[in-house]
Design a protein that fits this description.
alpha/beta, Rossmann fold, 8-stranded mixed sheet, 20 helices, globular
């Protein structure tokens, strides 16, 4: 239905402005490991170290000065009436968000230092060399225009000064959105009308509604909206180590999994994506491989202490996309929390490299959660209220059914002999953040997070956080039990 609306909008009101990136450009942007500011906007400023902020500002100015001149400007946007600061802001958005993504992929949290900025800058420069500076600016313009038009449609109308302040969207960025409004006005997407106290209000024109539908269609086709949602959840939830669902008996589905990947005496096993609460699972793997085998735990986040690591497990303090292992160094790999591995494609490429030919790889991912479960109702109440306003259903089991999951990821990376199993995975003793991650791919959360500005998302998450701790306490005390439908995908390295 969304595709039909987007196509109809383009047919009725004409093609999108030239400054909106094509789906192919956005796909290339994502493939280069780049991100753009809107999904990470609203992060607390302290999550960017001061020297990292200074590095982003300096590099943005240097790149804009090097690449942004008259011919490039017209070729990139289709017209020349754009402030000089526009390019610097575009690079800053991309560089800052990419650095946040690098930090999250490396450590499972978004705390950005100068090393992350250096890695992000290398990616940005590589993309500019291959696709051109104009492509980078157009992708940023597409993402930002989507956020801007969607916010105006959400508030309907939106006070002009509220929009220009940027506080609804970028409270940490420290800049106003005059350039954004200039682009929207130049494209005929926004109308101004008198507001209260002599001010003015913004509303979308018919062309603006058409542009919003068409841009959403283009970003959906490129995979941007899926990546955007993953980053939104990462920005709003920072899981802490919690007691493991595997502290005592392993769930039956995991018993089957360990057998499927051949965990037994003498086997070398790589384990990714297990927090300290998963000590029970690690201990069981170590017991099964014995003294002749080896269990390697990839630990990028610094959450494990020496005392917490079970006997027989060696910790590798390394990034998931840069494993310090030789090709074919291990016999099997377990990633129980595949969806939390950060940049999946880069991590899986490394997994395929370090697992020997014929070795088995298993990924785990939650598939759905029961939104009608009695334990979740107090926690979901604020989400239900906002979903009702947006006409989004909140009921039944919701999750990534029918969308790409662990099995699809293994197929995409050329693994062979794929087997996909499903079962119920206990959530253990969750925190609010664990609950939010369990719900992260429910359709209601995807739809609501996709359609509201950062300020509203932040308020929603804060309300859910307050309520979620009480829900988690009830689960810890055994008042309720909660499990999620899980997918386990197993395949071999060719």
């Amino acid at each position: 239905m969304e595709a039909a609306r987007g196509a109809a909008a383009v047919a009725e009101h004409g093609a999108l402005p030239a400054y909106i990136a094509s789906a192919a450009e956005v796909r290339a942007f994502l493939a280069a490991g780049l991100a753009v500011d809107p999904p990470f906007s609203g992060l607390a400023e302290e999550r960017f170290a001061l020297d990292a902020q200074e590095a982003v500002a300096a590099a943005s100015g240097d790149l804009a000065e090097e690449h942004w001149h008259g011919a490039t400007l017209v070729a990139a946007l289709g017209f020349a009436a754009v402030p000089e600061a526009f390019a610097r802001s575009a690079v800053g958005d991309v560089l800052g968000a990419t650095a946040a993504g690098v930090a999250y992929a490396a450590a499972g949290r978004i705390d950005v230092g100068p090393e992350a900025v250096d890695a992000a800058l290398e990616r940005v420069q590589g993309f500019i060399a291959s696709a051109g500076f104009g492509a980078l600016v157009r992708v940023q313009a597409a993402a930002t225009t989507f956020e801007d038009l969607q916010a105006i449609a959400f508030y309907d109308p939106m006070e002009e000064q509220v929009f220009l302040s940027g506080l609804w969207h970028r409270p940490w960025a420290g800049r106003h959105l005059h350039d954004d409004l200039l682009l929207a006005a130049a494209a005929g997407a926004v109308r101004l009308r008198p507001g209260a106290d002599g001010g003015r209000q913004l509303v979308l024109s018919a062309r603006g509604h058409a542009a919003l539908a068409a841009i959403r269609l283009r970003l959906e086709a490129s995979g941007y909206l899926t990546e955007r949602h993953r980053r939104l959840v990462a920005a709003h939830a920072r899981p802490e180590p919690a007691p493991s669902p595997w502290e005592s008996d392993l769930p039956e589905v995991w018993e089957e999994l360990l057998a499927a990947v051949g965990v037994g005496p003498g086997v070398r096993v790589l384990i990714c994506g297990v927090a300290p609460g998963g000590a029970g699972l690690l201990a069981e793997v170590a017991r099964r491989v014995g003294a002749e085998g080896e269990v390697l735990l990839v630990e990028p986040a610094g959450a494990w202490t020496r005392a917490a690591v079970p006997a027989g497990v060696r910790v590798l303090h390394a990034r998931l996309d840069a494993l310090p292992l030789a090709d074919g160094a291990v016999d099997a790999c377990l990633a129980p929390h595949f969806l939390h591995l950060g940049e999946h494609d880069r991590a899986l490429a490394e997994v395929r490299r370090v697992v020997r030919r014929g070795g088995r790889v298993a990924l785990g991912a939650p598939r759905s959660v029961d939104l009608d479960h009695a334990a979740l109702q107090p926690w979901l109440e604020p989400l239900r209220a906002l979903a009702a306003r947006l006409d989004v259903p909140v009921s039944g089991r919701q999750g990534p059914e029918g969308r790409a999951g662990a099995g699809e990821a293994l197929e995409r990376h050329g693994f062979h002999g794929l087997e996909v199993r499903t079962g119920m995975l206990p959530l253990g003793a969750p925190s609010h953040d664990a609950l939010l991650h369990a719900l992260h791919d429910a359709e209601v959360l995807r739809e609501v997070f996709a359609r509201i500005p950062w300020r509203e998302r932040h308020a929603l998450v804060q309300q859910m956080r307050t309520r979620g701790e009480a829900v988690a306490e009830a689960l810890r005390c055994g008042v309720h039990a909660l499990a999620v439908s899980g997918e386990i995908a197993v395949a071999s390295v060719p």
